[in-house]
Amino acid sequence: MAPAPQLDTILENILDQARWAPSGDNTQPWRFEIVEARHVVVHGFDTRSHCVYDLDGHPSQLSLGALLESLALAASSHGLRMEARRRLSMPDTLPTFDVHLLDSPGMLPDPLAAFLPRRSVQRRRLGTRRLRASEKAALAASLPPGYGVQWHEGWRARLACARLMFDNAKLRLTMPEAHRVHRDVIEWGARFSNDRIPDQALGVDPMTARLMRWIMQSWRRVDFFNTWLAGTLAPRLQMDLLPGLYCAAHGVLLADAPPRHIDDYVAAGRAMQRFWLTATQLGLQLQPELTPLIFSRYVRERRAFSRTEGMQELAQELAGQCQSVLGAAAFDRAVFLCRIGAGPAARARSLRRPLSELLVTPATAP
User: What DSSP character marks residue 133?
Assistant: First the structure.
């Protein structure tokens, strides 16, 4: 049997930097198989089988796109150009990419590479200073051809977006399918987490966090508090309404054409990562707001997502609200929604699994 390929210093650095790419609930839906010194297989996977938010695996595919862009950025720091090709023989549930790192004499390091480990989610309030023209221009210029950004600025526009998030939060906090996800992805009593979201990064005060921890131990408790004690009000105010108001703007990344295929979402993920890293470079903070887009697609495609009475009807109303906020022309082309603004970096955040845990062999790949 041939010995396993060695992980040289350059490749180790590239993978170590790229693993900081964002992923929903810090799932990190990728593993790395070293084939040769400059050939890596990225074994992707998704969570659609058990996560109501990962509709058709598209959010995970966005994350994989962010990973590929991160690989390209990290490679540029070593004068290498990344080429990635998806294996068409693999199912969409297991997106698999052959990644080759090619010598590229004269290539300069991409400045965004330096911000890979620093980019994070800030769920707490941000400053309400409007984005400067230079900041908006830099963010727009970060996007590859085929993508643009729509801004929702000013008090009224921010209020409309904040209400959209506040109302969507009622949907995700009152159905058992989402409760199972939330229960599993939060690491309680933690400031940092390698594979989940630490509760101190949620954006709620300590008292609300303690109450949430107790309530979320069982769906019966959640349902009781939601029904009789307005159990969703405090977290929705602290995690959705107030942060939605206290920011500079809400931004929507728009593709020229509605995304349909896995490759469309991977490409959108690469655009998203460049946008987010540019925000970090500018000293701005960002929080994704994907829930309205996900549940609007459930509605558009008439897909059931919950057995709980009234959830589908509520989602129908929220989809109409989302279309009203974004505009009919943008509704189908939106690939990423976020709030952005100046402010301190998050003191608590998700970290990443050590690189050693992300390395696999063909026999152990997902």
Answer: H
Task: Give the whole-number percent of the chain exceeding pLDDT 90.
Answer: 92
Per the CB < 8 A criterion, the answer to whether 258 and 333 are in contact is: yes
Which tens digits make up the pLDDT trace of 159-205? 999 999 999 999 999 999 999 999 999 999 999 999 999 999 999 99
Tens digit of each residue's pLDDT (9 = 90 or more) over 132-145: 999 999 999 999 99
Helices (H), ranges, the chain:
9-18, 58-76, 133-141, 154-173, 176-185, 206-215, 219-228, 233-236, 242-245, 262-281, 291-300, 311-326, 328-331, 355-358
> What are the pLDDT digits (tens) for 103-161?
999 999 999 999 999 999 999 999 999 999 999 999 999 999 999 999 999 999 999 99
Three-state SS sequence of 149-208: EEEEEHHHHHHHHHHHHHHHHHHHHCCHHHHHHHHHHEECCCCEECCCEEHHHCCCCHHH
Q: Which residues of 308-328 are buried (b: 16+ CB within 10 A; e: fewer)?
A: eeebbebbeebbebbbebbee
The DSSP annotation for 92-124 comes to TTS-EEEEEEEE-TTPPPPGGGGGTTT--B--S
